[in-house]
Give the backbone structure.
Amino acid sequence: MTAQIIDGKAFAATVREKVAGHVARLKEENGITPGLAVVLVGEDPASQVYVRSKGKQTVEVGMNSYEHKLDVETSEADLLALIDQLNNDPQVHGILVQLPLPSHLNEDLVINSIDPAKDVDGFHISNVGLLGTGQKSMVPCTPLGCLMMLRDHHGSLSGMDAVVIGRSNIVGKPMAQLLLGDSCTVTIAHSRTKDLPDVVRRADIVVAAVGRPEMVPGDWIKEGATVIDVGINRIDAPEKGEGKTRLVGDVHFESAAARAGAITPVPGGVGPMTIACLLANTVTACCRANGLAEPDGLTA
Ligand code: GUN
């Protein structure tokens, strides 16, 4: 079998179009412009790239973007004061604090100081609990994007065997909750899992989110399985010339594509969906804040 390639870039564009449509309606019919505040502390180069991209796409779908760039030495009290101000600002419907934070700042404390209704990352302990108990919550963007692609490909996921490799709070755990919510039989595998190849070989759905380049070889993939590769790893690519690099996922793409029914590429798979879902979450938060019907197809 040669896998169908799930085009995350194209899918993300359709999500952004839907978001833009909702934003236009909110403006026209309700006089409301959704607003997203992004807070970046320090100058981590990868974070700077993400934050720039988030701001650009926020404006492109017609929303207001509020960027707060703080010095790397910003105190916890000052950061908490900014979050308090954003929590109380009616123009701000979504708040995202870019992670990782500098080591002198307590990430859990900072995240849990965000108003859960504005927590478009879905990292606040209240949202984690709401998701875990199947209640309406804000859902982390990357897992939400993966779920949208899986639903789009399969329709119903009910009864499927799903393996999530990786147990992070940002991807693995919420992904497992979402799959469970869609009635999959879910296994969360991790670095201590016994006989990982065997566990993966049973799966109809494999979500790889560990951050280790090409750690899942094709011969672990069941024939016809759907493979969602969350990993974005930069590796040396001497074949492209001295000092050159390339991006690869957590799955060995060529060998996995030879067995899978469908697979997301890296780049161009899950990556573009994450920011699209952040925009979707911001519209959802804005609708909830204003007692309006939530956008169809943009929530879990
Ligand atoms: N850093 C890496 N991924 C994320 C994310 O999804 N949200 C935030 N806030 N920071 C990140």
Q: What stands out?
A: The first strand starts at residue 4 and ends at 5. Residues 96-99, 121, 141-142, 170 surround guanine (CB under 6 Å).
